[in-house]
Structure formats: C-alpha cells, structure tokens
C-alpha cells in the first residue's frame, strides 16, 4: 500500500501499482541476468552466501511492498506473466499476464482487506 493511498482514486492506485510492478520486474530481470553472468564467469556460487543474501534481500523487499505476496507469485510462480496463470476472487478468475492486470488484482485485494478490517 502506498502513502496517501486513501486520497487516491482506484485508477490512480492501479496506475501507481503498475508503475511499481514494472520497475520491480525490470530490477528482477536485471539482477537475475547479472547473477547468471557472474555464475557463468565463476564469480558467484549459486549455493553461496552472497547469492543467498542477494535473493533474500530482494524477496524481503517484495514482501515489504506487498504483504499479500502477489508480486512474489507473479515473478516466481507465474514467471512474470508468461505462464498465464489465473487469479482472482469469488470464482472470478482471470489470466494475469501483464503488470496492469496484476495491479488491478492488488488494488482489489487492498479494497477487500480494507473492508474486512472495518468489520
């Protein structure tokens, strides 16, 4: 959730999430490529402490930003949308293939959680 999100329209929240998702996915791809290149050059052990620290830090950053872990699901399980996995609520599932689709799902999740907290 973003600072000041209560003053934002739903569209503004979706736009902000979409921008953040694109940035995080881009960072993930760059970091993954850099780690792969370092591993191929013999500079990074895939089971080593540095590799573990890099990815643990990245994962913790994602959970800090999105406590419902949609980002983690999108990047790792759904392979940044390329697996075209479905997600949603109340039997209304949709394929999540783009950052925009994920942003809409996250905003829906935020709204649902906010409503539950008010009960």
Q: What does this molecule look like?
A:
Helices cover 64% and strands 7% of the residues. The protein is mainly alpha-helical. It has one domain. Helix 1 (10-40) packs across helix 4. The longest helix is centred in the N-terminal third of the chain and has 31 residues, at 10-40. The two termini are 20 Å apart.
Question: Layout of SSEs?
Answer:
Layout: H1 10-40, H2 49-65, H3 70-77, E1 86-89, E2 92-95, H4 99-118
Antiparallel strand pairs: 1-2
Helix pairs in contact: 1-4
Helix content: 55-70%
| Adjacency order of strands in the biggest sheet | 1-2
Q: Output mean pLDDT.
A: 91
Summarize the helix and strand pattern as letters: HHHEEH
Kindly give the count of domains: 1
């Amino acid at each position: 959730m973003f600072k000041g999100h209560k003053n934002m329209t739903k569209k503004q929240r979706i736009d902000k999430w979409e921008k953040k998702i694109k940035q995080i996915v881009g960072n993930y791809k760059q970091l993954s490529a850099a780690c792969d290149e370092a591993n191929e050059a013999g500079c990074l052990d895939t089971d080593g402490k540095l590799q573990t620290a890099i990815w643990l830090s990245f994962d913790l950053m994602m959970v800090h930003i999105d406590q419902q872990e949609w980002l983690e699901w999108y990047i790792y399980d759904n392979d940044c949308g390329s697996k075209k996995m479905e997600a949603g609520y109340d039997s209304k599932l949709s394929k999540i293939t783009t950052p925009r689709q994920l942003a809409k799902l996250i905003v829906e999740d935020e709204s649902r959680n906010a409503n539950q907290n008010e009960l």
